[in-house]
Write the structure tokens for this entry.
Amino acid sequence: MEILRCEGIKKVYGTGNSRVAALQKIDLSVEKGEFVAIVGASGSGKSTLLHILGSVDKPTEGKVIVEGTDISTLNQTEAAIFRRRKVGLVYQFYNLIPTLTIRKNILMPLLLDKKKPNQEYFEQVVGSLGIADKLDSLPNQLSGGQQQRAAIARSLIYRPALLLTDVKWSMVLIVYCVHSVQKKRKKGTLYTNRT
């Protein structure tokens, strides 16, 4: 079953002499449950593509279809809601809210929708990532690796259709481990990982 499809994705920044074509006619199809890596040199457009796949940015041309929804046509509010509910994003930088505990940072996508977390699933995710004892800490009280794992937990808490990561290879292994645990726990809930 296809979960993601890109058709003719193009992204251009600037105009005239300062025009940069970051992506040119990208076509991509990903089946549910696939684990895919996008690799390339610095400046090759990997992060730009991830931002477009995650509805953080829009393509200049083309379509991005996630679970049957063309996210390239969503307005800013619709894109934010879709991203929160359907796309887990893990960035190179943690993007944790410094004044909130790790628990609240992880649960933020659910809290924004006024949804009650599944406690068993929450405990499984934070336990798998080794941060169960850090939930009442603030982000600045954690190591960089622990903050990254909290960001991964936040990206998984909504059980997204897609998991997109723009992180170092060591973090990809952590995501893959969590993915494997979740796959065993709830048959039919699979994640796609991007690096």
Notes: DSSP finds six helices and seven strands in the chain. The CA atoms of residues 9 and 68 lie 17 Å apart. The radius of gyration is 17 Å. Confidence is low (pLDDT under 50) at residues 187-195.
